[in-house]
Amino acid sequence: MKNRPILEVKNLDVVYKTLTDEIVALKDINLQVGERESLGIIGESGCGKSTLFYAIMGYLPSNGNSTGEIFFKGENLLEKGQKEMMEYRGNRIAMVYQNPYSSLNPSLTIGYQLDEVTMFHRRFSRKEARKVSIQSLTDLHLGDAAGIVHRYPHQISGGMQQRICIAMALLCRPDLLILDEPTTALDVTTEAVILDIIGELKEKYDMSLIYISHDIGVVNKVSDRIAVMYRGEIVEKGSQNTIYQHPDHPYTRALINCMPRSGIVKEEVRLNTIQGYVTRRSAAETGCPYIARCEKKAHDCEKGYGLKENSPHHFSACTRAYAVDVPDRERTALKKVEENYDEEKNILKIENLYKYYGRQGKKIRALDGVTVSLDRNNVLGVVGESGCGKSTMGLTVSGLLKPTKGKLFFDGMDISVSWEKRTPDTLRGIQLIFQNPGRSLNPSFTIETIIGRPMKKLLGIKSKVERRKRIIAILKKVDIGEEYLNRKATHLSGGEMQRVALARAFSISPDLLICDEPTSALDVSVQASVLNLLGDLQQESGAAYIFISHDLNIINYFSDYIMVMYLGRVCEYGRKDEVVGPPYHPYTEALLSAVPDVDPSLKKRTIRLEGSPPNPTKKIGGCPFAGRCHRQIGEICINVPPPRVEFSDTHFVYCHLSKEEMQGISS
Amino acid sequence: MKTMFLLLKRNPLAVLGIVILFIWIFAAFFGPSFLSYTYTEMDMDHQMSLPGEYNHLLGTDALGRDVFARIIYGSRSILTVALMTSLFSSIAGILIGFTSGYFGGLIDMIFLRIMDIVMAIPPLVLAMVVLGILGDSTIFSLTLIVSIAYTPATARVARGALLSCKGNEYVDAARIRNESHFFIMFVEILPNTIGPVIVEITARFAYSIMMIASLGFLGVGLQPPTPDWGMMVIENKSIIKTASWTVLYPSLAIASLVIAVSLFSDFVSKVMIHEK
Hints:
The complex is a heterodimer. Chain A is of the alpha/beta class. In chain A, 31% of the residues lie in helices and 22% in strands.
């Protein structure tokens, strides 16, 4: 530790009492944050990351009981009463939450909410407070700070709201800023801007930082040291580079390896997975918390290793990450490349598709002339920020939405209508996987009913025995045992639910599967196994996929073709190697630069995209991206629709830049 | 089951409510066979006798009828009508509320406005007017009118519960496999809305008891000689100073049943929250 510690947590345990039993949320947490230091905490959901932060702030619910010591500048916070804690909260320790929209009061102006902080803690007058508030907003690079204070939270974008939350947290110049997944709800380009600002302000204000996230890439961008949490324990902590390059704990290593990093593609690598999922911890449990999921466990693991300093400043609760007696899993390709070009048959053709929401006059142009086609056994990755129309496209193809204009052809058949007018065979042929499996499976049905119903309805299998036989077969393929048949969906973990959703889709052998962010509600370890499964199922069935995601790493890993969308229009389309390498559309360039990388040694130049996409109710004459484009070349971008620039048969870009200019952009 | 027991342990009031409710149900089923009087029998020698005197547990009224017997018999009619009312109004409420919320648009608008009109009339006034026109109340007409009065409230709850489920993707998934509207509403959605609907039914049960008793008090409830708690209160109002027990015990009966059902209903809603 180079600096004096500002926060010291010693032997912290947190136990929640529920009606039926006691759940251990944190166990024996020891950590320190030095002055001007930033600590990143990573772990999957349910690992106690947020509980730790609630315990520090004294925000635990009434059934949560914490024991141990939390020293903030030498004073034990756990001994303070609620009234004394007021002195710390928001004043000396400030926090920023995940969802800015629910942290801001929708009925008060932003200025009012900001002023309150200094008026309360510093006893400022309204006038002084306002001056400080505006200064703070300017620090966050919010242009027109004097105007923003008069607006209400719903009048500004999510990214700006989060910047206002950060400005609010910094008003009293706290010594410690805790950020709990502050960018998880935001788009990747906005996230990049916010991470940049956080790094900058940390230097400027000399404060310490705790950054909580599930994403190693994000944590790498802002932290000096990283602590990895698993089931309420810190299993490893050390400097950012050590954790990435020499993880000692098998969990850390598995977590790093199961993320699709940039440059990894399914033709070469099958993602590592971690079996099982995070379970609750009972008070009686002893030993290594990771034992149930560990591939490298040895006979003495039940005793538990305890957090030890294995090398200077690098603590770990295990050293078996590279254990040789248990070999690493073979790294094989998820998809065999040569089989790729058998039976190239067109399955879906979208021609000039338009979808408008709302009434005349105030139409939202969700899709503004999209043309694309997709062959059997291929994956079309659709990527873009929220509101770019990627989900609308999926829903229109699936039939849940009726296209406003344009044509859709499925296997040569015109299907430009909504679901009521489609034939049962088309309905069978196009299946949809939703983002949130908890909402896409009916919680009151058993797994058997969930999977069996489409078989009965769309394949016409009347016999219950026959259905059950097929259900068991398909469940086996998605790695779910027969004993689940009579369970309800609510008793399954997120990953299991998504597997059941996949089983439901594949039980009726679809030709086209639309996956709308199928892994973004899942933890990274589970995400890997779902992606592998999706790949295997495709290999076997030869179905085509439309894979919609906001995450370029996943899109690059999983797709064959990529379509980049912005405000309902296509910016760039091509084979994946053509899209992720130059020449690019400037928007693709910005998206790629914004993706946080797992490897901290890869320092990329980030392109700061300011502002948010333009109002989708207005008709745009020129390029929709012109307003935010860092390579804008003048009036032509705003007034003239960009031409289609073709680089190859499969790769084209809609941009006013010349071919040569775009080829000049280096990666 | 275990959580249910633990929740009961934490809520002694709920236990009290359930015990009282069971006593009344037991009384309605088996009570009359233990009685030494029927509800019409007049003990001409002992009119307005004190509770406990002459083998009359709760005394007699001005006509010498046994108050205890009349209360026990009265529990039959009030429980029957209240139970049927909450059943009918919830079935009708679910049907209307679901249709309205599921289809939305114009259908929703029309249904909602009709509900508004029914709700705008105070239920007691509505019942009094209709029952007054129909003449002598029977169990059937009483059930019908109380059900109608309470359907809009149930329909609104059902509609709200449906709307909160309708946005779930399992509904979309059902649509694109061409399920019928009926299937989606009653097989996919209904089981997931059962929590708030059951809470509403139990709460409605308590309201129904109050309303039936009130109607009896106002003289438009079940007609004599059928014993009715509300009616017993009003019949004996004139002798309240000399024979207070004739008014007190029927009133206590009404109060205890309403409170018991309310406590039970609170407990049901706690269980439902916990189930989630």
